[in-house]
């Protein structure tokens, strides 16, 4: 296994390659023409983990004609996430999101404009807004639980996707859109979600049924958002929400955002605040159902915090450290995004190795989160690893990268943690759950890696008195 590089640097593409630099070692087992495509399609995490075991921090492999370079471990992550946009660029890789988010936003604009657009999000992520979100998360989850009745069976991924759409649309877009969730928006959004798939990564404009449904859904959602904005302008209504923030926002040059830009930014934020959260919420529930002692600790903590006040708030959610450790452990074991990819615009020099310009460079949270020198017994579900004195995630600031890192680290991480804790606090207070099937394997066919279906869970109302008034 390769050791940590003695020197890490990037050099201009017109500078001669140093004599000591050598090609990155290739993962064994590649086939002619196909490369490692068959193994990757079957189980990408096992394949990439094998690459780390064979060659350490940096290894290359082929998927068909394309070469990929995998950076693994905290030092490699530090190099990867610190690289500037003119060396490692995300925009060229994530063009498959353009049909979903739309033209003129996110990865369809220059890095400077994208930074301006992300800057519009900051007011929506401050503590003042988070206090209101905590109330909304509680209300929406309580209504969801009420609708379930006394007992029954649910498909957990589907149910939590539905719930997080309601929460995120109300928190991050506005009440008018939340009111339309059950009358068309949720269905269209589901079709839009299905547009994020492995085929779409390589051929986002291929006219397959999933992509045609994606494009119809995008037009339908744009119509819903435009209608809400038009009514606000007509009536003079100015709710305190993120849609209104964007309607009032101006770029540095003084230009207002178009309705299409507002729609694209809202969809970008909605996907960031919902899609991965729904998947991670599912894994949290599944892990707690088979870790009964941990589940009991989470419920004991709930009793201690809510017995006196009986009301959920931002402050109370922050006190639930046991549940937060569960969330972190599920982020470690089941990161919704198993790959983060950039394109090398210039040769990258990492220790004795060079990654050529034009190659696709990646990190894999799913692989790096299982490194045994960082996480003790890494395959074991052990939330206590995040509590002092172990605090295994604090060994390096890139030990845990489920929400990315560097300039492109997810701004909504705090929102996601808040939402996940609120959902499971209410559901565990209300119900006892039992998994109706075996513990599911990951579904690597989707860009966001949730469990394979069916994933049915039985529930029954608890006899204990609720901790909430």
Helices and strands in order:
Blueprint: E1 8-10, E2 22-23, H1 37-42, H2 44-55, E3 58-63, E4 66-71, H3 74-82, E5 88-89, H4 98-101, H5 111-119, H6 127-148, E6 151-155, H7 156-172, H8 175-179, H9 185-193, H10 198-202, H11 209-235, H12 242-248, H13 259-290, H14 292-309, H15 314-319, H16 321-333, E7 340-344, E8 348-350, E9 353-355, E10 360-363, H17 365-368, H18 413-430, E11 431-435, E12 456-461
Parallel strand pairs: 2-9, 4-10
Antiparallel strand pairs: 1-8, 3-4, 5-7, 6-12, 7-10, 8-9, 11-12
Question: How would you describe this structure to a colleague?
Answer:
This protein has 18 helices and 12 strands. It has 469 residues and is of the alpha+beta class. The chain folds into 2 domains: 1-93 and 338-368, Uridine Diphospho-n-acetylenolpyruvylglucosamine Reductase, domain 2 (2-Layer Sandwich), CATH 3.30.43; 120-334 and 373-397 and 406-469, Cytochrome p450. The strands form 3 sheets. A 5-stranded mixed beta sheet has the order 3-4-10-7-5. A 4-stranded mixed beta sheet has the order 1-8-9-2, with no helix packed on it. A hairpin with a 2-residue loop joins strand 3 (58-63) and strand 4 (66-71). The longest helix is centred in the middle third of the chain and has 32 residues, at 259-290.
């Amino acid at each position: 296994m390769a050791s940590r590089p003695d020197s890490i640097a990037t050099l201009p593409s017109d500078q001669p390659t140093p004599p000591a630099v050598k090609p990155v070692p290739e993962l064994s087992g590649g086939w002619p023409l196909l490369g490692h495509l068959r193994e990757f399609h079957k189980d990408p995490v096992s394949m990439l983990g094998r690459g780390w075991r064979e060659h350490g921090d940096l290894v290359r492999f082929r998927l068909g004609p394309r070469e990929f370079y995998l950076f693994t471990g905290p030092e490699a992550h530090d190099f990867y996430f610190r690289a500037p946009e003119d060396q490692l660029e995300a925009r060229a890789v994530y063009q498959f999101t353009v049909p979903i988010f739309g033209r003129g936003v996110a990865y369809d604009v220059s890095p400077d404009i994208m930074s301006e657009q992300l800057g519009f999000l900051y007011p929506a992520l401050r503590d003042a807004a988070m206090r209101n979100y905590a109330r909304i998360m509680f209300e929406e989850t309580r209504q969801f639980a009420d609708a379930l009745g006394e007992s029954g069976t649910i498909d957990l991924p589907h149910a939590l996707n539905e719930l997080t759409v309601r929460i995120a649309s109300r928190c991050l877009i506005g009440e008018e859109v939340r009111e339309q969730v059950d009358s068309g928006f949720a269905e269209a959004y589901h079709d839009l979600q299905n547009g994020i798939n492995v085929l779409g990564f390589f051929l986002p404009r291929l006219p397959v049924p999933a992509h045609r449904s994606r494009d119809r859904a995008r037009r339908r959602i744009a119509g819903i958002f435009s209608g809400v904005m038009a009514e606000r302008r007509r009536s003079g209504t100015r709710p305190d929400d993120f849609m209104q923030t964007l309607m009032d926002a101006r770029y540095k040059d003084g230009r207002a955002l178009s309705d299409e830009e507002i729609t694209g930014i809202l969809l970008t934020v909605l996907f960031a605040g919902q899609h991965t959260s729904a998947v991670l919420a599912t894994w949290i529930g599944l892990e707690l159902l088979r870790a009964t002692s941990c589940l009991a600790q989470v419920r004991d903590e709930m009793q201690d915090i809510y017995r006196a006040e009986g009301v959920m708030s931002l402050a109370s959610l922050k006190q639930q450290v046991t549940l937060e450790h569960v969330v972190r452990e599920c982020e470690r074991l089941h990161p919704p995004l198993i790959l983060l990819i950039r394109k090398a615009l210039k040769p990258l020099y990492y220790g004795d190795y060079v990654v050529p310009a034009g190659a696709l460079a990646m990190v894999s949270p799913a692989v790096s989160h299982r490194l045994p020198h960082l996480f003790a017994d890494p395959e074991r579900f052990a939330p206590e690893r995040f509590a002092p004195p172990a605090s295994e995630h604090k060994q390096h600031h890139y030990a845990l990268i489920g929400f990315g890192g560097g300039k492109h680290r997810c701004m909504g991480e705090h929102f996601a943690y808040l939402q996940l804790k609120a959902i499971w606090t209410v559901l565990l207070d209300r119900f006892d759950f039992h998994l109706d099937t075996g513990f599911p394997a990951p579904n690597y066919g989707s860009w966001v890696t949730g469990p394979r279906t069916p994933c049915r869970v039985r529930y029954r109302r608890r006899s204990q008195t609720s901790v909430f008034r």
